[in-house]
């Protein structure tokens, strides 16, 4: 048995008995629903020992279980071995939901428990569940036998060496990069709040606070944000942030813009005193915020939509960041293809080298997510991240999948390229080509106003569907402007996502093919939605149901042509691909030395 984890679970159970709680649910999130969570809120990892990025731990007075998805089945099984936790594999037939599992544990169908009897109490930390998540859980549990209870955070009591909330300094994000000052942003926010019938808005998402205030930070890995809340009322605004994080420059900036400050922990008591209707977005705001408000108005946080619409300055910034990133990627790709046959390269060494090339570029601030560098079978693990324990040598054959990105002051990048390290099998070349065809079909799409990403998603999958191949992740996501690399709500994915694609949105295109135990392929560009350049033909005056849009390719990096099976491609796909490759050369070549310029010329020649 893992004695340390067992002792931690017993300490949680003692706390539960004191609170009169029969079960406690610990998610992987923090009060701000971010993708990356500061160490202070790694409670699920602490209680279970499982360190994957996604998972939910449930502890009852005599049992425990952890739910996670297929990315982590193997790792979770190993890390949970010897602990009180049983692994529950999400997505597999026969795996119960948390509500079903609790119902089974407490045998709620037994005639022993009649209506009106004392209910089983299921506890959650109200700061780490959104309003929408809590309401969904309550519906699944039902109210006949269970009562969902909002509790104080137990880990404040039982986690004795818990890391502190980050206190890193905040910095200004110049309007030279943001393109709009804070006064203008707050004015637009207030107008939208009023339209939704409220007089205040509580902003909880860290990237939305950072965007609204034109500030950035380093509290969260890979994302330039800082731990805080922002409340914007009709005539005042207040950011809840610990004063240790504010430099003299930032504090003066906030005062000049009439933005008050208050301690981070004061948010809930202040909300209790707020006497006007306050707008909150249920899927982005934690339960404790809603319970603190006298009048909560459910709606959409204005910043959610505002920040995904890139202004002219931000669009210029993307082009600048993509140019720098393309230069780094060209240098790395050439170097990697030459270094791998010489031996001695591993997934980690290749990843470190890529970061070093990016670090040479102006305005670089770090990577935008942990680099996915998967060779051979590792590339078939969709979100594989090499570690000291998993790192393998990259040999001069097979495929290497590299999904990476950079944070620059003027933009955020996200790109995937799959490199042929040497001789390939027919299946590797076929899958490389099928994935490329899907990438081209979606990237070259033209579509009318009102089209959702879920309506276009099949374009990327159809070529591989004809071979009985599919993938289970989304095909694309929004990208922030020196913010989070994953930005919504617009996406490409199979399930319905009701957000139309409109000009000035950024979005990735990244279909993939993953053959377990063998290889993986993914091609990815970041794109900008723009007005379509429609074909000229007779009857053009009869065009209907427009306007029409298309995608501009922001990413500037060649796709290597050696693995392509040309016979599998359609003529119009080849023409579009050759045009893209030529654009890459034309834009990058002037910024390269002769050696790299010649290499780029060779790899971008038409197929």
Q: What is the fold's blueprint, element by element?
A:
Blueprint (H helix, E strand, L loop, with lengths): L2 H17 L3 E4 L16 H6 L7 E5 L3 E5 L4 H8 L5 E4 L8 H8 L14 E6 L5 H11 L4 E6 L3 H4 L12 E2 L2 H4 L3 H14 L4 E4 L2 H8 L1 E2 L12 E5 L3 E4 L7 H9 L2 E4 L4 H6 L5 E3 L6 H6 L3 E3 L3 H5 L5 H28 L7 H13 L4 E4 L4 E4 L23 E6 L1 E3 L2 E2 L2 E6 L5 H18 L2 E3 L4 H13 L10 E3 L8 E6 L13 E4 L2 E4 L3 E4 L2 E7 L16 E6 L17 H18 L5 H10 L4
Parallel strand pairs: 1-5, 3-4, 5-6, 8-13, 11-12, 13-14
Antiparallel strand pairs: 1-2, 2-3, 7-9, 8-10, 10-11, 15-18, 16-17, 17-20, 18-19, 21-28, 22-23, 24-27, 25-26, 27-28
Q: Any idea what the radius of gyration is? A: 26 Å
Shape: globular
- Structural class determined from secondary elements: alpha+beta
Number of domains: 3
- Overall mean confidence score, pLDDT: 95
* The CATH H-level homologous superfamily of the largest domain: Creatinase/methionine aminopeptidase superfamily
Can you put this structure into words, describing what you see?
The longest helix is centred in the middle third of the chain and has 28 residues. The relative contact order is 0.08. Helices cover 34% and strands 20% of the residues. The protein folds into three domains: 156 residues, Creatinase/prolidase N-terminal domain (Creatine Amidinohydrolase, Chain A, domain 1), CATH 3.40.350.10; 136 residues, Creatine Amidinohydrolase, Chain A, domain 1 (3-Layer(aba) Sandwich), CATH 3.40.350.10; 274 residues, Creatinase/methionine aminopeptidase superfamily (Creatine Amidinohydrolase). The chain is built from 19 helices and 28 strands. It is globular, with a radius of gyration of 26 Å. With 607 residues, the protein is of the alpha+beta class.
